[in-house]
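Query structure, 250 tokens:
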């Protein structure tokens, strides 16, 4: 009888050791990404590469040299042969607030600080007059976007994104009233709206979600501040075109 009791005790201890030695069940892969998709509200941050240029609408007489009325209508420059806007690089950092509407639709607010100057290149009949004017701008962007997501395939999900944003320039349009005509700068409005559209994908890691994303943005209306000076006079309208590649961590 005593041997049977010892045998029973040994069997119970062995079984208990086996139970405690088992590895815990791994978390569901759908909880990966820090569980962001399982919450209605989540937050994150982003780093972006920005490329911008102006779409230019010229005045009918844009080639004509600018005349200095205070100096007997003397021409300040030679005839203008071409006016263009080269691509200008920049970068942005932002903060993400995400709200889940349905399983496949969410709203996002992504305020960002954008550092991206723009350029205008003037080529004249006299090459000595050629000049490139920079439009210095640091902007705070407030985009409101809708994100349409595909079904999740393992740890991957594709999406489309679109919406509108408002941009406000910081420290722009410094006064150059006392500057010589050839030292004048082209100014942009302080605040303007844009529409945005893009594509991206969500890649789920164990503790966070990474979303590479590319967006196109076009300003609405005219961003030019009209002035009677050599570099603004040839232009009727400026629109800002932006391509932004972002890495979003959530």
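Result returned for the query:
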């Amino acid at each position: 009888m005593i041997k049977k009791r010892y045998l029973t005790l040994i069997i119970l201890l062995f079984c208990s050791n086996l139970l405690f030695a088992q590895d815990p069940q791994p978390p569901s892969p759908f909880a990966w990404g820090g569980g962001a998709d399982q919450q209605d509200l989540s937050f994150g941050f982003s780093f972006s590469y920005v490329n911008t240029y102006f779409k230019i609408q010229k005045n009918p007489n844009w080639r004509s040299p600018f005349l200095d009325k205070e100096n007997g209508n003397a021409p300040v420059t030679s005839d203008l042969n071409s006016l263009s806007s080269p691509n200008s690089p920049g970068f942005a950092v932002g903060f993400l607030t995400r709200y889940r509407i349905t399983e496949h639709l969410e709203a996002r607010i992504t305020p960002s600080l954008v550092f991206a100057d723009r350029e205008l290149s003037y080529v004249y009949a006299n090459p000595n007059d050629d000049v490139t004017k920079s439009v210095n701008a640091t902007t705070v962007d407030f985009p409101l976007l809708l994100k349409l997501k595909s079904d999740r395939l393992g740890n991957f999900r594709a999406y489309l994104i679109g919406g509108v944003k408002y941009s406000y320039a910081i420290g722009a349009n410094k006064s150059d009233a006392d500057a010589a005509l050839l030292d004048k700068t082209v100014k942009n409005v302080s605040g303007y709206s844009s529409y945005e559209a893009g594509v991206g994908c969500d890649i789920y890691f164990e503790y966070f979600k990474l979303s590479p994303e590319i967006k196109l943005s076009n300003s609405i209306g005219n961003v030019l501040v009209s002035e009677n000076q050599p570099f603004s006079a040839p232009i009727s309208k400026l629109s800002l075109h932006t391509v932004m590649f972002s890495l979003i961590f959530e």
